[in-house]
Amino acid sequence: MRRRGSLLAATLTVLLVAGGCTRNRPAPPPSPSPITAPHFRPGADGAGDPYFPKYGNGGYDVAGYDLDLRYDPKTGKLGGRATITATATQDLSRFDFDLAHLKASKVTVDGAAATSRATGNELIVTPAAGIPNGRKFTVVVEYGGTPDQLENKSLGNGGWIRTGDGGIALGQPESASTWYPVNDHPSDKATFTLAMTVPDGLEAISNGVPGPRRSQDGWTTWRWTESSPMASYLSTVVIGQYRITTSTHDGKPMIIAVPDSMPATSPAARSLARTGEITDYLASIFGPYPFDANGGVVVTDDRIGYALENQSRPVYGAPFFTGAEPNEGVVAHEIAHQWFGDSVSLSRWQDIWLNEGFATYAEWLWSEQSGKQTAQELFDKAYASFDWKNTPGDPGAARIFGDAVYQRGGMVVHALRKAIGDDAFFRLLKTWTSEHRNGNVDTAQFIAAAEKISGKNLDGFFAAWLNGTTRPPVNRNDPQDTSGEGAGDHSPASSPVARRSPLGATE
């Protein structure tokens, strides 16, 4: 059997020479997987909001805006540099910013030159190389021009307003894109830093904590920092001749500004002087005040007949203060927004009742706290006179500032209080503002929170109060029962809450 062994040996020799034995050879490197390889594509040119699909953009999440700008009231020209830090949320080949009326002259991404082009109100940026999903990047945009407002036939104009001695950046649901490149949708909140240089003798008031000012060659640079994430429409700058009062409230800077032409004893100045007191009361209900600064600004431009809850620094139109007495209701409304709308922000504009309903209810609570009409009395008047065909749960894009969002929204809040009882209701408010601080929310989340804290199934309640087109039943005598015969027989009366002109409600 020796021959058989010789044949096996010969066969093994042939295999070894031919390379048939690969036991000790390294494996070849694997081919790139199509699953893990980057697939770069453009970010969406809108955030996909059901009401305003082209507001904002997709493909990235902004962490912060750092603006260094210069404004000349004589020419109306604004220019400077925006440094934007962000993180890619997809493999990006290019991305958009919202930027209206102004032109970019130079754009870099992580220090490398990028190409850019403008299409309508979009600035389209193409970096030198694709940005992988999850990577942080920095964009620097040098830009300038003559800022202006955005025209929205249904909602009015918002954005940059040139005034006789300066300018005002203000508006909802969009305004930021008229003065800096931005992802202009509340779902992408970011920190905000502004250095605004204006001629000596003018003030430039913005959001957050004031920084050191510097004057040089006839120009003064004002610095502001908002360190909490902020929805872009809440950013503001007011430039002109203002009398600024700086104090400290609860260890935080309180900045109150009124026009130089407005006496310190005017109803406007006296109204804003109550800001700290109103904040303290609302904090007892909503939880700790959420920001590092507080205050407010009064403006007298005829084109601003509304008030807006700009983060840490609400802006109030002068028409709110035409009476002889202070208007504390509008201050309570805008300060309440610092919790409901600013700290806890919308994921989509359809749910704006979460902002305005609670701000309206804060007015009712402050009225009661001040010894005036109670929240129940104000609810009863609104309940008796309201047109229930208009709903706050899905008001439509053209009606996000309508009475259904404000007045019926306030009634939803009060009716919820009656449905679940005071203990659960006030625990809900503080839990909601604490758990969602600096975040974004929707109505479904609020309903789930209300049900969790109350232990009740509230599907029927919210279906009737948010989306029903007939008067919902309510029993004002039993806070645990919503199956009663109604709120009582009350004659119609207009609510004393401040209203936005011409759209019918404060913002």
From TrEMBL:
Per UniProt, residues of the Aminopeptidase N-like N-terminal domain are 65-234
**What catalytic activity is recorded?**
Release of an N-terminal amino acid, Xaa-|-Yaa- from a peptide, amide or arylamide. Xaa is preferably Ala, but may be most amino acids including Pro (slow action). When a terminal hydrophobic residue is followed by a prolyl residue, the two may be released as an intact Xaa-Pro dipeptide
Q: Is the keyword DNA damage assigned to this protein?
A: no
Q: Which cofactor does it need?
A: Zn(2+)
Residue ranges under compositional bias (Low complexity)? 491-507
Region: Disordered; residue ranges are 21-48, 469-507
InterPro entries associated with the record: Aminopeptidase_N-like_N, Aminopeptidase_N-like_N_sf, Peptidase_M1, Peptidase_M1_aminopeptidases, Peptidase_M1_dom, Peptidase_M4/M1_CTD_sf
> What GO molecular functions are on record for this protein?
alanyl aminopeptidase activity; metallopeptidase activity; zinc ion binding
Coiled-coil annotated residue ranges, if any? none
Is this entry keyworded Nucleotide-binding? Answer: no
- Domain of life, source organism: Bacteria
Family annotation (PROSITE patterns): PROKAR_LIPOPROTEIN
Q: Which GO BP terms sit in this record?
A: proteolysis
Keywords, comma-separated and alphabetical: Hydrolase, Metal-binding, Metalloprotease, Protease, Signal, Zinc
Q: What is its EC number?
A: 3.4.11.2
- Specify the signal sequence span: 1-23
Domain (Peptidase M1 membrane alanine aminopeptidase) spans 325-465
Per the record, where are the segments of Pro residues compositional bias?
Answer: 26-35
The family classification in the record reads: Belongs to the peptidase M1 family.
PANTHER family per record: AMINOPEPTIDASE N, PROTEASE M1 ZINC METALLOPROTEASE
Name the UniProt record assigns to this protein: Aminopeptidase N
Organism of derivation: Actinoplanes regularis
